[in-house]
């Protein structure tokens, strides 16, 4: 895999991360209906960005940039496939051989998944405006944003030089296989992100959040603490000398601690917001930080899961617990 492709993927990860911040700012400023048009704003492609239109149209511009980058990335992954198809259409009988650095089939397919996700994300964004921010569509829009971020992070991992470096496979040790613990942790974090997106879009800043959703979100946080915390500690206990695993594990645990603190602070600042004349900066920035940190927790957990499958080898001893 070429270094240039990996660097482009990292740029796509950064752009997607900025898009998550932009989307969170739109919700926190209650700017989702700053304009009733889509994809244009107030009938213009480049309107005067004042007030809440700055956040809403700025979000659309960042989203368009991410969409373009994803399209370029997908085309680049399939350039040799497209070239062979064009070669056949022109009637040429010569055969274009497989190139040394040509992406694998599953990587090309993952690139198409990313492209489909970003297109669907854009359409959901337009639908939220046209339907006046229905909860189901808004929550789906926020959830798909996290899935897309997870996809581009996966692409960054599997295009890195470290992924293709020759490594000695390590046998799974007794107990629950770490690889599946990491998958369970990622799934738990993702379910919590769905709960968080639903809670966040369930009420504007001038109304109180539904109690049942708050309770569910707190319960989800406890589940993440148990599953992800347990997974991270398992890594540190079983494979203390494998930095390929311990680094994402320690980062995930540190981010989880920050995320729990941000969650508590965000809830306390959100409690006072219905009494404020408008969304105030303390509530806005703490809430945005909470959303963004949640995405980082999810991404780090995905990295840990991918590296676990890359490094660890399932053995009969590792699955002894399943037959007992």
Kindly describe this structure.
It is a single chain. The chain has 2 domains: 1-166, no CATH class; 172-324. Helices cover 72% and strands 1% of the residues. It contains 11 helices and 2 strands. It has helices at residues 3-28, 52-77, 79-89, 105-130, 135-158, 161-164, 178-200, 211-238, 243-272, 281-311, 320-323; strands spanning 170-171, 312-313. The protein has a two-stranded parallel sheet with strand order 1-2. α7 (178-200) runs antiparallel to α8.
How is this structure best summarized?
The chain has helices at 3-28, 52-77, 79-89, 105-130, 135-158, 161-164, 178-200, 211-238, 243-272, 281-311, 320-323; strands spanning 170-171, 312-313. It is an all-alpha fold. It folds into two domains: 1-166, no CATH class; 172-324.
């Amino acid at each position: 895999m070429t270094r240039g492709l990996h660097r482009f993927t990292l740029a796509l990860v950064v752009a997607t991360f900025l898009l998550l911040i932009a989307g969170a700012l739109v919700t926190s400023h209650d700017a989702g209906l700053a304009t009733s048009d889509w994809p244009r704003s107030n009938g213009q492609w480049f309107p005067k960005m004042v007030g809440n239109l700055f956040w809403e149209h700025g979000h659309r511009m960042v989203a368009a940039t991410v969409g373009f980058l994803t399209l370029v990335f997908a085309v680049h992954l399939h350039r040799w496939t497209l070239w062979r198809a064009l070669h056949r259409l022109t009637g040429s009988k010569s055969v274009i051989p497989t190139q040394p650095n040509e992406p694998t089939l599953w990587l090309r397919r993952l690139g198409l998944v990313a492209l489909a996700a970003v297109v669907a994300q854009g359409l959901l964004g337009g639908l939220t405006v046209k339907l006046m921010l229905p909860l189901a569509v808004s929550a789906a829009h926020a959830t798909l944003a996290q899935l897309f971020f997870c996809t581009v992070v996966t692409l960054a991992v599997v295009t890195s030089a470290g992924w293709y470096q020759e490594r000695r496979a390590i046998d799974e040790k007794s107990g629950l296989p770490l690889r599946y613990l990491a998958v369970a942790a990622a799934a738990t974090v993702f379910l919590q992100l769905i709960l968080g997106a639903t809670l966040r879009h369930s009420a504007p800043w001038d109304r109180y959040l539904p109690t049942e959703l708050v309770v569910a979100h707190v319960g989800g946080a406890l589940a993440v603490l148990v599953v992800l915390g347990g997974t991270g500690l398992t890594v540190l206990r079983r494979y203390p000398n494998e930095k390929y695993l311990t680094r994402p594990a320690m980062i995930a645990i540190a981010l989880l601690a920050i995320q729990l603190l941000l969650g508590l602070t965000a809830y306390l600042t959100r409690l006072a917001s219905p009494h404020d004349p408008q969304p105030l900066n303390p509530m806005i920035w703490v809430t945005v930080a909470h959303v963004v940190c949640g995405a980082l927790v999810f991404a780090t957990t995905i990295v840990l899961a991918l590296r676990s499958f890359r490094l660890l080898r399932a053995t009969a001893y590792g699955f002894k617990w399943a037959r007992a």
